[in-house]
Write a structure and sequence with these properties.
Blueprint: H1 2-60, H2 65-84, H3 91-110, H4 115-118, H5 121-156, H6 160-166, H7 180-183, H8 205-215
Helix pairs in contact: 1-2, 1-5, 2-3
């Protein structure tokens, strides 16, 4: 009798535990969908603002034609991906949206060379709305990715992975950049310093002493016959090729050298 009671309690406990895990997956998935809807609203708002921005800049900055065409192309591509994925998140859409954000930032920097455009009321209003939209997109992306991380952790962790596999809970997609060229950090070099080999070890005291002694001159190693007599007022000795004193004509120099000792 007690065996069946204990078995029943164990079965009921496992059932409650499975239901709790299942409900946790449902809550996490709904939270992800809700956080993504907030991002999707801001992305669609940016789709509506960009054409007005392009037309306003085109009227004042005709030289920015390539930048405007690139922004228009990326905007249309992102809107097409949004319709294809039915407003959902995907790695391809995240990459296009990141490129679109970079193109808009580049355009905002380029218009600094056009004072008339910077003072235009319509442009200032569009710039303000786009800046606020970009900030909300960035905040929504951080919130969305945090929810995706928690959900994916539940999907891959044990024993919740058993419930995930049973009810086909798939991993969610992050809204981030997957292009390695964008993520790659710039290489900083400092001329020839980067080409020098690194020192393998610190120099010892004996090596420093030997290098110091080798750098000092040795007075005994010089041939003093190559130098002349010191000049007046403590001037240094001059080489033999430039003698300081010349002998008078009445005393010719000795032609025969003295015999060797």
């Amino acid at each position: 009798m007690w065996f069946f009671v204990i078995l029943l309690v164990v079965v009921v406990g496992l059932a409650l535990w499975a239901v709790s895990l299942y409900n946790g997956f449902i809550r996490s998935r709904n939270l992800i969908q809700e956080s993504w809807r907030q991002i999707d609203v801001e992305l669609n708002r940016r789709y509506d603002l960009i054409p007005n921005l392009v037309e306003t800049v085109r009227a004042y900055a005709a030289h920015e034609r390539n930048t405007l065409e690139n922004i228009t192309k990326l905007r249309n591509q992102a809107a097409s991906l949004a319709q294809t994925s039915q407003g959902g998140a995907s790695a391809e859409r995240a990459e296009v949206e990141e490129q679109l954000s970079g193109a808009v930032r580049q355009l905002m920097v380029s218009v600094e060379a056009y004072p008339d455009l910077k003072s235009n009321i319509n442009f200032l209003e569009l710039q303000k709305e786009l800046t606020a939209t970009e900030d909300r997109i960035a905040a929504g992306r951080r919130f969305y990715n945090a929810n995706v991380r928690n959900y994916n952790t539940q999907v891959e962790s044990f024993p919740s992975v058993l419930i995930a596999n049973t009810f086909h809970f798939e991993k969610a997609t992050y809204f981030e950049v997957n292009d390695q060229a964008v993520r790659q950090a710039p290489k900083v070099t400092f001329g020839e310093i980067s080409d020098r080999p690194e020192a393998t070890s610190e120099p010892t005291t004996a090596q420093l002493t030997a290098a110091s002694d080798a750098a000092l001159p040795n007075p005994q190693a010089y041939d003093q016959s190559q130098f002349g007599q010191p000049g007046q007022f403590g001037t240094p000795a001059q080489p033999a090729e430039q003698p300081i004193f010349t002998q008078p004509p009445s005393q010719p120099p000795t032609l025969n050298p003295p015999p060797a000792q």
